[in-house]
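Hello, quick one for you while I still have it in my head. A protein chain has come my way and I'm curious about its shape. Can you walk me through what the tokens say about the fold? No rush at all, and the record is pasted right below.
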Amino acid sequence: MSEKTYFDLHISGLGYLNRVRDVKPKKGDSFLACDIAALNGSADAPEYRRFDCRVSGKEAQHLVRRCQQAVDAKRKVLIGFKLGDLWTDIFTYTKGERAGKQGVSLKARLLYIRWIKVDGKLEYKAERPEATEEVIGAEADARDFTTETPEASDSVPETEAEAAFA
């Protein structure tokens, strides 16, 4: 029997952690979820892309739970992250001025957290660039198809850039 192979789509970035919660669906097992308001565009006027994430993997779950108290206290929790398995969910608003209109939610799995800053102070930095074999294998495969070198986006933001997001 041959081994199954998959194509992974990963999104790397930095963003604010919000709405950490346990989700208990009517069917299936409960899971940890969070929202990430990812920064996009110019540092002078950043835009945000909101991702509703299911937290995957024990290390990511541990780190998100460690941040839950700070998030609940409305502190600024900025993370370097890697998402996978992006999909959209179309829904209908039930309340407010948009009631009855359709909306779109970006959904993904939070696979990996590179670093965490709470109110601008570094609280966590991963010892290894990527902690999961799944992610390491996918990136190794990707290097076979490109001649570009990895970008510096894997590092903790520079002080100058942080000021734009504080």
